[in-house]
């Protein structure tokens, strides 16, 4: 799994929670989080607040409440000579 794989996933799906990403890429959520932090620092994605529907029952997987959204930016490549 590469940063470009995650970037491409967001280009298609636009928004995803950490649990969905971990399932899709068959990876540990902690490993995905590090890559998401890099993409967020580059302005590719934004971590958004959960919808507020949580009633605090603690039954949900916490990673399903961490949501990221694609900003519509792709990796910029230098122009060809």
- Helix proportion: 25-40%
Number of strands: 3
- Globally, the shape reads globular
CATH topology heading? Arc Repressor Mutant, subunit A
User: Mean of residue pLDDT?
Assistant: 81
For the record, the CATH architecture stands as: Orthogonal Bundle
Structural class label? alpha+beta
Uncertain segments are none
Share of residues in strands = 5-15%
Instruction: Give the N-terminus to C-terminus distance in angstroms.
Output: 30 Å
Q: Please work out how many helical segments DSSP would assign.
A: 3
What kind of sheet is the major sheet? Answer: 3 strands, antiparallel
Q: Over all CA atoms, what is the radius of gyration? A: 14 Å
CATH class: Mainly Alpha
**Strand line-up in the sheet with most strands:** 1-3-2
Number of domains: 1
Describe the overall structure.
Helices cover 40% and strands 14% of the residues. With 81 residues, it is an alpha+beta fold. It has one domain: Arc Repressor Mutant, subunit A. The protein starts with a helix and ends in an 11-residue tail after the last strand. 17% of the residues are buried. The mean pLDDT is 81.
Helices and strands in order, then pairings?
Blueprint lengths: L2 H11 L1 E3 H8 L3 H13 L3 E4 L18 E4 L11
Antiparallel strand pairs: 1-3, 2-3
Give me some keywords for this one.
3-stranded antiparallel β-sheet, Arc Repressor Mutant, subunit A, 81 residues, alpha+beta
